[in-house]
Amino acid sequence: MSSARGLLAASVISVQNSCFIYPACQRCFSRLKVDSKRFNCLKCGCTGEAKDASYRYRLSLKIADTNDLFDITVFGSCLDPFFGVTAGNLQRCIEDFNQLSGETNKDASSGVLVQAVETCFIGKRFIFGV
Q1: Partner of 104 at 20 to 30 A CA spacing, among 52, 66, 96, 129?
Q2: How many angstroms separate the CA atoms of 74 and 63, rounded?
Q3: CA distance linking residue 11 with residue 21, whole number of Å
Q4: Domain residue extents for the chain
Q5: What percentage of the chain exceeds 70 in pLDDT?
Q6: What pTM, to 2 d.p., does this model score?
C-alpha cells in the first residue's frame, strides 16, 4: 500500500451509506458496542456508561473525477461545517426528535437525514485529501 498523499478534486455521485454517525471510542476511534447502560470498545477495551459515549461522523461516498470513479470514506470533525453541528450534537437532536415525536422506529428519522445529506453532497464538487 502506498503512503503517498495528495488532493483529489471530484464530484459526489452518490452517498453509499445511510448511517452517518457512529458511537466512537475516544482512544482509537473504533465503533463502540453500546447497550442501554454501557459501552465497550472491542479494539482497545475502553468502557463507560452509554450516556457518555461520543459520536463521530462517517460518510461513505462514490466520487468521480474526470477519469475515474472512487469509493471514499470521510471521517470525523471535518464534516462538522457541512452538518452544522458536531456528530454528538446531531445524535442528541435525533434522539430528542424521536423521543418528542414518540417515534419508536429509529430508521424513520434517518430517512429524512439521508435525503438532506444527498441534497447537500450529490452533484457537488469537493477537494478530498487522499
Answers
A1: 52
A2: 12
A3: 22
A4: 7-129
A5: 93
A6: 0.83
* pLDDT of 77 higher than 70: yes
User: What CATH architecture is 7-129?
Assistant: Beta Barrel (2.40)
Cα–Cα dist 109/31, whole Å: 21
Between vectors from CA 87 to CA 83 and to CA 92, what angle results, nearest 5°?
A: 105
What's residue 81's pLDDT?
94
Type of residue numbered 9 = A
Cell, residue 130: 487522499
Any idea what DSSP says for residue 30?
Answer: P
**H helices within 13-130, ranges in order?**
80-83, 87-101, 106-121
